[in-house]
User: What shape does this take?
Amino acid sequence: AQSVTQLGSHVSVSEGALVLLRCNYSSSVPPYLFWYVQYPNQGLQLLLKYTTGATLVKGINGFEAEFKKSETSFHLTKPSAHMSDAAEYFCAVIELTVSGNTPLVFGKGTRLSVIA
Amino acid sequence: KAGVTQTPRYLIKTRGQQVTLSCSPISGHRSVSWYQQTPGQGLQFLFEYFSETQRNKGNFPGRFSGRQFSNSRSEMNVSTLELGDSALYLCASSLAFDHQTDTQYFGPGTRLTVL
Assistant: This one.
């Protein structure tokens, strides 16, 4: 069964600094990978997703992620953090099976704090 | 276009009671998924419905059930509530069943507190 590990339950960066949120997955077949963001008292919003094709994926709000099969990783980055980026970020995976897609399997989440 | 709507937003119940949560998907979306979010377990998949049929089910006890109506609206029911059922219940809708191509859009959730 597929699983997702997010390293660091809490990451703190200064405004303007690089944001790096780590995600590793385990899957027996090529996965489909997602990053979602959750702001306080809100649902999840899709930031970006990787299905096939280019391994560097650009998303909304200046975020991007790179699929590295050899490292089984899908880390999320943003060159310059903004105060509005403070939120909880979830990495998720689905795995294509013969019976159809599986549901989203989420990591535990990483809370990003941005310090002025 | 209106987003995913969940009602009620907040709910307080006592142990042993039952509760019904409602989700209205984005217009035109036919797939609805439910997730439970808790601080300890994180986000866990409950079930998914497409065209009124349950397509997938997570590893939850039979006290958790759901259904989907012909207009794609969905309800989930939890019977004999336990303290551990306190959670944020999130609903997500998508156009169809193919999660590779169909983005899931999440509602704001229903915060259930069991006393």
